[in-house]
Prior knowledge:
The chain is of the alpha+beta class and about 130 residues long. Helix content is about 30%, strand content about 40%.
Amino acid sequence: MREFDAIVLTPAETAFRGKATMLVARAVDGEIAVMAGHTPLVTALAPGLLRIRTGTEMRFATTGGLLRVYSDRVVVAVEAAERPEDIDLARAEAARERALKRLDEPGRGHVTAEAALSRSLVRIAAARRARQT
């Protein structure tokens, strides 16, 4: 299988840089898979699981961001990218509970609470899946 350069960037670090044969991400309008030779594009990403095939499969729980496909590389820019095995499950579950409480409070920023809930659910799902394998 042909390879392409893949880069996953956050404001704090380069979470991944290397060769990949496939990258799968959750775009705002559905999942997108990218392989070498893909048509150039830019799409917005929703919080979700980012999978990168490099011979083995690397996974990251990501926040929303952007994915840009160039002719020879793919760049993913997100606020956060965490390896599932590095996620503190208890902390993610506490974040989910805080977000649910904020959604129940009248006059609170529901958009912010919904975003926090979405991020926590992605982190929980990724961490639980990693612990099952």
